[in-house]
Amino acid sequence: MFKALDPLLHQQLRLSIVSLLASVESADFNFLLEKTEATKGNLSVQISKLKDAEYLEVNKSFKNNYPHTTCKLTQKGRKAFEAYVEAIQEYLKPNN
Taking the model in full, what pTM does it have? Predict the structure, then answer.
C-alpha cells in the first residue's frame, strides 16, 4: 500500500518552493520568484499557505527602504518534504 502524498506539497508551486528551500539556509522572495517563475501574487499566496501550515518561517523587514521577505524551511516543513520524497520514491519502485 502506498503512503498518501501530502496534499499541501503536491501542488506544483508549493513543492517548488519547499524543494528550493530544502537546499539553502533561507531565501528571499525575489530568489524564489526568479527560480519558480511564478507571479508575485501567486508566490505570495503559496508562501502564506506554507507558513500557515508551519512549513515555513517568513521574516519581513526593509532593505534600503524596500520590503524584504525571507523564507526558511521549518523542521516540520523539512520532515514533511522528506516524507513526501520517500512516498514518491515508493511510487517509482518497480513491481509495486
Answer: 0.91
